[in-house]
Structure formats: structure tokens, C-alpha cells
Amino acid sequence: MAEKLTDSEGREDLVYIKTEDGSYRGWRVDLLVDNLSSKLEEKLLLCSSCKGMIRDACLYQEELRCGVCIPEGVAWQPVKMNREIVSDKMISCPLKKRGCEWSDTVNTATHHLEECEFFPVLCPLGCVCLEGERKGKVMKLEKRRIPDHQRDSCPLRELVCEFCVNNVKACEINLHLEDCEHFPVPCPNRCMREGYEGTRQLKRRDVPVHLADVCPLQKVECPYWEYGCREKMERREMDLHEREFMHIHFRLLKTDMKQKQVQTSQELDRATEKISILENESESKTKELATANTKIENLEKQITEKDSELKSIIEVLCSYTPLPLSTGQLEWKIEGVKQKIENKEETYSDPFYVGLYKCQGCIEWGWLNTCACIYIMKGGYDDKLHCPIRYIYTLILVDHINSNNNFEYTKQVTKKDLKKYPICFKGPTQLSNECYWHPLFISNTEILEAKYCKEDSITLLIKIELLPAL
């Protein structure tokens, strides 16, 4: 029975009776060391259904059965009986045929199988059977054979390559040796090392360098190949070739030098011509640059005059009391929203003007909610401002699916706000005033909805309307 165990089955197959429905019933009687002593003992200890030694005796239709042999949903009556009669019975190991000599009481059998050296277990390295009933499945061996298997025969055990000292699986060692860069191979030209017999042996990775620089039998080109000598020979013959063909090599060098002199003279003439052209172009560009500088100076003068006129106009406009109220609007596209929320970042808009006031929006991505505020910044017309500053601002989160469903929040600076946060609404003395926060603009969950967050970006409209000073 032990031979038929599958990967998913356990030790209960060996000690209990397994029925057709896959359940485990009474203890296997064939494991008893001594047979039951009498018919009365058989009647008291054996289940009338599974014929195994009883597990939790029950009375069903005037017969003793295992508690697990009672049909589901049927009333039964438990029977008090001395469980030691069953649990103290001596049984042998279910793997006795394999050589296990263990025997002990019934209640220790399952515990023994957890340690039994003859119990079949899967190879810890996961090697696969190549033949037999378990072909293609993970190999099973008796527990006692696992150490020898892992050490000597498992194809997935790791071996150390004697050449490169890398760890390689046993089943891949032959393929590894075919590519191992340290594996010794003969010189392709079968050259011999001086003072040694046989073909020179090299590390596989050293073969290209050996052929390119060392091997005396490698065919190489004459050093004067680029000058016209088209001879190829073994490297060991090169010295003799250079001595015998020295006069020919000299003529080739002389001819090449003459050709290069002619080429150099032609290139020099062309370079001189180019220099002359570039000098003419440089003079022309210098004149154009002088003209451009004159135009720039004239434009700067015009800009200065226009700027002076504009300041005069602004001074006239600001001389009226009260200061004309203005409105301003900024369309602010914010990208990478998910990352900003995750990092709890602060995001700032580009500065924009509302009348003479320079403003900037800010979003703080909190743990649960997104907070918003408006900064009043130093600008070019701060000496014309009327403070404390009062305004109504509206934050509009654009709905990309239905523009009629935009999320809007409006906040007005009140007299109470001016008293509570005076530093936020005074004329700016630094780069920007302290911000006037609205702590619960919108929750992070809402802002990440598909209708607001499109391609990980949102569009926020900021509208500000200035109010008369109190």
C-alpha cells in the first residue's frame, strides 16, 4: 500500500482503512503483532462496518461501529468502553515489508510514521522521475536514502566546476563544460609549446588572444599590407618574409609617401580657401551684429518709455478712492496626483495677479483630506495696495465626465478672520504672507475618483474676487 502513495496523500493511508468515498475508518487489523485472542474480543474491538479496530465506539442498530462509520444525519448512541483495550494493542510498522522493525501500541503509530526512516518522501531538491509510474513527477525515496541521494545521485544537486570553481547543477555540468571559459582546449592550429610535447592547451577564453598575438601557426597579413604588400603567411615565417622583401617594402613606402604629400598639398589648398571664405563671412556677421545691437538699444529705450507711461497710468488709477475691485482666475493642472498623496507633498501653483495683488495657490495632500490655501505674495505694486486684504475665493475641481457636476468650494474672508489671522491679510513684507488654510477642502478618496482624476492628473480652477477693505 505504501508504494501507491501519491504526492498529496499522507500517513493515514497506512494505518487506517480507506473506503471508496475517501474517508478513513478503523485501524488496520493486519498490522497487529498478535491476532485477536477470541471471538468476543473481535466482537468488542472490530467495527461491524469497516472491519477495522474501532475508533470512538458507537452503538448503531445494535451493532458496534466506529464513530466515523455512522451514516451522516442518523442518530447514534456513544458507548463507553475501555479505549486502552484498542490503544494498547501492539502493531507493527505499516512499512515492515520495506524493512522497518518498529512495533508499539496503536496510539503511537501515526507519530512513528512521522519519523520512520522507511517512509517515502519527496526529494527536497525537487528532481523528477524519468521513467516508471511516476515519470514526470517529483521523485520519492525512503527518508533514510535522502542524504545519499542528495549527495551522490540527485541531478539537481550542486557540483563545483573544477575549472572555474562555480556551482553548477549535476544535470547541467556537461552543458556547462561546453561553454566554461576556463575549460582547457587545444589550440585550433595545433601549435606546440616550446619545451613540451603535444598540442598547446589553453583556457577557452584565452584562445582569441592567443590566435591574435601568439600562435606561430596562425595566418597573418604582412605589416605592409596597407601599403600594397598582399602576402599572408604563418606568424613564424614573418621575420624571413620581412628580410627577403625589404627592398619591395621600401618602394611601397616611398610611393605611399609621395601620394600622401600630394593629398596633403591639396587639402592645404582647400583649407586656405575655406579660411578665406569664413573670414569674409565673419566680417559680414560682425556688421549684422552691430546693426542688431543698435536695434536692441532702440527697443530697450522704447520699452523704458512705455514702462514709464504704464507706471504713470497705474498711479492715476490708484489715486482714486476706493481702489477699483478686481477678479482673477487661474486654471491649474496638477499631475502625478497619486504619488503626491502617497508622499504627503505640498504643491504650489504659478503666481498670478488679481488686480494689483500677486497671489499663489497651494495644495497640501494630507493623510485623509486635501487642504487648500491662498498666499498673498510680494509683487510689483505693493506700495499701492489697500490692507488688510479681503477677498472671496472659489476652488473648482473639474469633473472630466460632466462639467455640470464640478466640485466647488467657496470661502469669504470675514471680519472675524481678519482679527484671528491678521498676519495672513496684511501687506506682504517677505516673499509671501502666511497662508490662510481651509483644512477640509475635499477628501483624498473623492479626489481620486475617475471623474476628477484623469491619467493621474486633476484640473483645479481658482477664482478670486477682491472685496472692499473694512
TrEMBL record:
GO cellular component terms attached to this protein's record: cytoplasm
Coiled-coil boundaries: 261-316
UniProt keyword annotations, A-Z: Coiled coil, Cytoplasm, Metal-binding, Receptor, Repeat, Zinc, Zinc-finger
One Gene Ontology term of the molecular function aspect: zinc ion binding
Principal location: cytoplasm
InterPro entries: MATH/TRAF_dom (IPR002083), TRAF-like (IPR008974), Znf_RING/FYVE/PHD (IPR013083), Znf_TRAF (IPR001293)
Location of the protein in the cell: Cytoplasm
Pfam families associated with the record: MATH_2, zf-TRAF
Zinc finger (TRAF-type): 112-168, 176-238
Residues annotated as domain TRAF-type: 112-168, 176-238
Protein's name according to its UniProt entry: TNF receptor associated factor 3
Lineage: Eukaryota, Metazoa, Porifera, Hexactinellida, Hexasterophora
